[in-house]
Amino acid sequence: MTSRPAPTPEPLLVEARVLTPDGASLRHTHDALACIGGRIVAVATPEECAGALPAGHRRIEAPEAYVLPGFIDAHLHVLAAAMADAGVDCSPRAVSSVPALLDVIARAAAERPPGTWVRAHGYEETMLAERRHPTRVELDAAAPDHPVRLTHRSGHAEVLNSRALALAGIDESVPEPPGAAFGRSLDDGRLDGLLLDMADRVEAAMPPPDPAAVATAVEVWARARLAEGVTTLVDAGPRNGRDEWETLAGLAADGTLPQRLVVMEGADHLGELPEQAAEGRVWRGEVKVQPRVLEGEAVGVEDLAAVVRRAAAAGRRVAVHAPTVESVRAALDAFRAAGDPRCHRIEHAPLLPPDLVEAIAAAGVTVVAQPGLLTEVTPRYEQLLTPGERERLHPWREVLDAGVPLAFSSDAPVSRSGPLAASAAASSARPPTLAPAQAIAPLEALGAWTSGAASACGLDDRGRLEPGRVADLVVVEGPLETDPAACRVVATVVGGEVLYGAGGARGAGTS
What is the dihedral of CA 410, 283, 404, 391, to 10 degrees? Predict the structure, then answer.
């Protein structure tokens, strides 16, 4: 692993309206901050902050803009997100029908040598005109000479054509593994190519991606996140072990990943990961637990509690994948059974009845949610949820009022909304069909991307703009207090180093 030396950032003065945490929200307190050696040394008036810096310091002058703590994406999947962005795009933004999707795959296959895999990403069956999954027969017709893997937006489903199924060793004689399922044709009962939670087996049959191509995809993807103001990435892979750590730490060490990186440790790999790497730019995060059950199935509380006990005995916090009401209840029960539930995390928790909100608050457990989905996949929620369920979808107004710690994230590649657009989805742009009374204020939503996310991830040195804290900052201009989606990032600072600048900030030079 070749490690890029940590930069020595020049002293920096930022003249903008400083937003400071105020409960779950943010408020304007000062008009400038100063940074030396990658840390904040003063938050005060522009004159006072300039006086705290040596001559020749760098200056970002944007008095009508806001400066916030850098956004922390508290739950995503770095490699999957980067490769999805670099792959064949079959997301709702690219296709709206099965024929259009098949045409995209056919064109991608035509550009590749026969026999090579076509990796397509991001389809959402509820947002296709036919409101169904494509089938292996259709993929066979689109790419008869190539194995095809078409991954669902959620990452928990995929459709394979016949060549890909054969390479994965899946046919009519193969039983469904625990926690997985095969789709079958209603006409003859044969496999239709749809697989649920079979990613491990499929990936084992595929050639590993070229490391250079991975690095290029990650760099492009990470730079786009800088342009959205994201300064810390938290990889929540449930299979993260030593191999994944070495890959991600290597990308951080050579500068391919410019953000700070937290890597969760898969529960099956507890104790494998070191605490830090890449000269302190990479940290080990929570223990990620993803119960091997399908949606709607009961989660074994005692088995889950045993995992939590092992992690807690090692002094570790736990993050449990909980996309259903049943799985949220099971996570809470497991936390209680294992001891003190505080500091642990529940990931996703989209549907929360009132009693669960109260129970989460009483337990002191953090909820880590993905607000961008409210506007990205509105039709999915409208089609699949009952009216009563829609009224309990992401009830963040109740969550915050109950005192539940709340953090936001993208779960990329599941959601592709940046923090500003996602904050609008949770507040000013919340769809009127999806529990509009549960909308929160824009600054509360931004608080969940900053101080809320820092607390959820145990990052005590960031998430607030205070002297002594790490100088991870984002400068945003526009109507932040009313419409975050109408705003834009003009500068992103990581460890006092300006890594992104869109222009528009005056005097971004030296003083």
Answer: 20
Q: Which amino acid is at 12?
A: L
Q: pLDDT tens digits for 76-101?
A: 999 999 999 998 999 999 999 999 99
Ordered DSSP codes for 318-381: EEEEE-SHHHHHHHHHHHHHHS--TT-EEEE--B--HHHHHHHHHHTPEEEE-TTHHHHSHHHH
Q: Which of 35, 17, 16, 26 is nearest to 471 (CA)?
A: 35
Q: Are 442 and 428 in contact (CB under 8 A)?
A: yes
Distances (CA, A) of 230 to 25, 119, 157, 161, 390: 18, 27, 28, 37, 30
Residue 509 has pLDDT above 50, yes or no: no
pLDDT (tens digit per residue) in 449-487? 999 999 999 999 999 999 999 999 999 999 999 999 999
Q: Is the pLDDT of residue 508 over 50?
A: no
| Amino acid making up residue 137 | V
Those residues with Cβ within 8 angstroms of residue 511's Cβ, 6 or more apart along the chain or in another chain: 13, 50, 55, 56, 57, 58, 59
| Half-sphere exposure in the Cβ direction for 183 (13 Å, CA) | 19
Euclidean distance between CA atoms 408 and 446, whole angstroms: 9
Cβ neighbours for 413, distance < 8 A, ≥ 6 positions apart: 77, 80, 81, 84, 85, 121, 122, 153, 155
The per-residue b/e assignment along 232-264, b for 16 or more CB within 10 angstroms, e otherwise, is bbbbbbbebeeebbebbbbbbbebbbbbbbbbb
Tell me the residue length of the chain.
511
Give the orientation angle of helix 419-426 with respect to helix 442-449, to 10 degrees. Answer: 130
Select from 12, 3, 29 the least CA-distant residue to 466. Answer: 29
Say which residues have a Cβ less than 8 Å from residue 422's Cβ, sequence separation at least 6: 370, 371, 372, 408, 410, 415, 445, 449
- Could you tell me the CA-to-CA distances from 71 to 130, 144, 263 in Å, in that order? 37, 44, 17
Q: How far apart are CA 220 and CA 233, in angstroms?
A: 15
**506, 501, 463: which is closest to 223 by C-alpha?**
501
Q: How far apart are CA 171 and CA 329, in angstroms?
A: 36
Q: Are 286 and 317 in contact (CB under 8 A)?
A: yes
Residue of 372, 478, 509, 413 whose CA lies nearest to 120 = 413
Please compute, for residue 376, the number of CA atoms within 13 A of its CA located in the half-sphere on the CB side.
25
In sequence order, what E strands does 225-281 have? Answer: 230-235, 260-266, 276-277
Residue 346 vs residues 106, 263, 328, 364, 411: alpha-carbon distances, Å: 40, 17, 7, 11, 13
